Amino acid sequence: MSERSTRPVVGALRDVWRIEDRRNDVVTAVLTFALGWVLIEVGLVDLVQVDGGPPAGPPEPWWRLALLAAGCALILVKRRHPVLALAGGLVVVLVDLAWGGSVALMLVLWDLLYAAALWARPRPRAWLWGAAVTVTVAGAVAAGEASRDVREFVFMGMQLGAVLLLPLWWATNVRQKSELADLERERADLAARDAASAARAAELERQRAGDLERLAELDRHEAVRAERAAMARDLHDVIASHLSAIAIHSGAALQVPPDAARDRAALEQVRASAVASLEEMRSMILLLRGGSARDDAAGAPVASPGRLADLDALVDAARSAGSPVTVVDPDDVGHGSLPAATDQALHRIAQEALTNALKHAPGAPVVVRLDRSGAHVELTVHDDGAPAPSPLAEPALSAGTGLLTMRERAEGLGGTLAAGPAPDGGWTVRARVPAAPGAAVDGAAVQDPARAPGTGGTS
């Protein structure tokens, strides 16, 4: 049960307890009045004599019963107002002592003293103890001095102590035991709450550990997925491009009558593309194995990632396939200083765009343009298109992932890529990427080039 749901139950039990306390006070008052009436009837009155003379009784016998009734009425309020009830009881007892005193009113005083010592606040209790001890000692000394007898001193001290000090001592003892019991209950409750809190904390910690384990597992899956995507992108850009070049050159040679010089040139291009493909494949394998050039059994140097400085080689390969390619670089971006990730991404985008132009528009003029605009570099590859579908555009040469990989490379650096038909015909690929770390395109933050996806050593 929650704390909120237990409050009504606790409140109801407290109300029942209070009703039971009031009933007990009523029963105590009634029994005290009945017992006092019996004691008055049997003659236990006139206990005090002043100056050795006869005690001065009340004007009428029923006045003692009236005093007793007043004292019993004070018993009804002793729990709520213990000090006031005791003060009223002292007045009633003093009046009774003036009439000679009675055992019945001593019982009332005894009960009110007990109630005041049990339920009053700490300061009134201290004053009450001090007054009771003072009256007891003063009364015993006065009795001893009046009679010049030690026995009177002891006897009066015992009487006053029994009437005044005994109920105070008894109530103090009961109060201390009640406080100790309450303290033990509080300690038990605190221990139970601490145990519950510890169990809850342990459960939360177990849940947190489970969540962290699930998050770690998701991170591992995400890392594997990202690595697979990067490997697929690199395989497409590196291997598929060379294989497409091989297919295009061999297909072009097969479309025309045999010619020794032309066929030899085509075979040389096929061999160059095959060798380049094997070199880059070996570099990728070594990188995936976590090795370096020293791990290669042949000891040959590993091919370095493509850069814009190698753009001339891409252009020469496209020209050898029969497509006139023009490079426009007014700002000399291809030989300028660019971040490694940007340089590699632009090289791969240019490579894929040229390959697509050769596959889908063989023989059409192609323009490759590089421009620097502030903190960004813009690459544009435009071809005029083919007048009719090319017989070289076989389904195997069009996997449909070229645009996706180019867009991933540009957006991975915080750039953009647009590809589509040009208004005046042909096809245009335009990539815009940051030229310096920390730049952004259209509000997109640029990633750290060393951490950008798809910009590894085999891109």
Number of strands: 7
Number of helices: 10
Overall radius of gyration: 54 Å
Which percent bin holds the helix content? 55-70%
From the N-terminal CA to the C-terminal CA, the straight-line distance is 63 Å
Could you say how many structural domains there are in total? 2
Shape: rod-shaped
Largest sheet: 5 strands, mixed
Q: Going across the major beta sheet, what is the strand order?
A: 1-2-3-5-4
Q: What sequence of helices (H) and strands (E) makes up the elements? A: HHHHHHHHEHEEHEEEE
How much of the sequence is in beta strands? 5-15%
The class by helix and strand makeup works out as alpha+beta
> Low-confidence runs (pLDDT<50, min 5 residues)?
12-17, 292-298, 387-393, 438-459
Average residue pLDDT: 77
Q: Would you write up a description of this structure?
A:
The chain is an alpha+beta fold and 459 residues long. The chain has 2 domains: 3-196, no CATH class; 307-459, Heat Shock Protein 90 (2-Layer Sandwich). It has helices spanning 3-41, 62-75, 82-98, 103-119, 122-147, 150-255, 260-288, 311-320, 340-360, 402-412; strands spanning 325-328, 366-373, 376-383, 416-421, 427-434, 440-441, 444-445. A hairpin with a 5-residue loop joins strand 4 (416-421) and strand 5. Helix 2 packs antiparallel against helix 3 (82-98) and helix 5 packs antiparallel against helix 6. The radius of gyration is 54 Å and the shape is rod-shaped.
